[in-house]
């Protein structure tokens, strides 16, 4: 073999199955990655809503002298956004035909139910 020839392995891209190799560029941004990002975002937004509802509004704001009555309005708005992100997460996992679509759907549905209960409580606080 001459010095200018290369072996096939030198030009073969790394695959995810080879140890210690990064995933090839062609697989980055795949539907699975998008579904995982959507799930992470939906859980993050839901966690922010719960942090606001159970820590910031009832404890921190009154402690620093800010009116406590703003909580239900903001909580309702953030809860609705969180429900939207959870629905988008479910849709992404199903479109990607992700292997975790059933467990993620169940988890997202549980979060949606909890957020819906909080939204009803917030709405009741706002109305009366």
Helix/strand structural class: mainly alpha
> What percentage of the residues does DSSP assign to strands (E)?
under 5%
- pLDDT < 50 stretches: 11-16
**Number of DSSP helical runs:** 4
SSE pattern = HHHH
N- to C-terminal distance: 85 Å
Give the overall average pLDDT: 79
Percent range of helical residues: 55-70%
C-alpha geometry:
elongated
**Radius of gyration over C-alpha positions, nearest whole angstrom:** 23 Å
- Count of strand segments: 0
Biggest sheet character: none
Could you outline the blueprint of secondary structure elements for this entry?
Layout: H1 8-11, H2 31-63, H3 71-95, H4 101-127
Entry summary:
The protein has 128 residues and is mainly α. It has helices at 8-11, 31-63, 71-95, 101-127.
